[in-house]
Amino acid sequence: MISTVVLPVAGLGTRFLPATKSVPKELLPVVDRPLVQYAVEEAFRAGIRHVVLVSSPVKSALERHLQPADAALVAELEAKGKHDLVAALQSATPPGMTVTVVYQAQALGLGHAVLCARDVLAALPGGEQQTFAVMLPDDFIDAPAGQAGCLADMVALHRDTGAWSLAVEEVPRAQTDKYGVVSLAEGSLRMTAMVEKPKPADAPSNLAVVGRYVLPGAVFAALADVKPGAGGEIQLTDGIAALLASHDIRAHRFAGVRYDCGSKLGYAKANIALALRDADMGPALKAWLGSGVLA
Ligand code: UTP
What we know:
single chain; alpha/beta; Spore Coat Polysaccharide Biosynthesis Protein SpsA, Chain A; seven-stranded mixed β-sheet; 22% strand; binds uridine 5'-triphosphate
């Protein structure tokens, strides 16, 4: 059973400046909910009940969003009969979800951020060796209707086979230098190698890792040995690569659509897709888009 997800949210978010001067990237909303909330909800649907938020001391609004709703505001809305708003307010903290906050004082890379969660995992009943999940909230994965989502499928894979996994998707070869790229054993989904941001000519495939991982606890010891790699950062990719010979870690091709909400284009697409699907505003938005006003 996987009980804990690590959410690294301490990055600088420079691609979204100036918005991220004062608003953490992971709090940017897609329609009405911030990215971090979609991640917490996806983890909840996967059966996970403990979030370790690896945050930055200058991004405290993120932890506030995951705290229980203000009781006075709940009471006021209840008194006015605004039950839908109470539900919206309380949706940020699904029932039974515990949140632990740790800090990454300096953004030294995703691998370093995950390593910051080590002591919390070590103190839990399963100890440091337990399997845990990692989600990057800016990779927003919109599951097909009626499905629990990418992380739930990866948790089920671990339960059924014991294998760990990383979510992957095919990207154009010209873009491999933006991703961690995997190579697989012949005729199987087992990963044999992984490189961070390879040039297209050097990339072992066009299968790119996106922000969902189910990892063995052994990755902490591996990350502690990793030296700064691509971009001077401690890369999660390098820690995982060190485990591939000894662990069955698989590429998971997920169902649904992934929006790279760390980029302005991906973020705009996510908002348009979800707004068009929204029961209240979807029809009016569609009519507006088709009205010629944008021509
Ligand atoms: P990104 O690779 O998108 O980096 O991080 P970033 O710094 O947030 O954004 P840009 O590139 O400057 O625009 C992916 C996830 O990993 C977290 C981020 O907060 C985001 O959720 N992260 C990244 C950390 O927690 N710590 C780090 O040192 C780096």
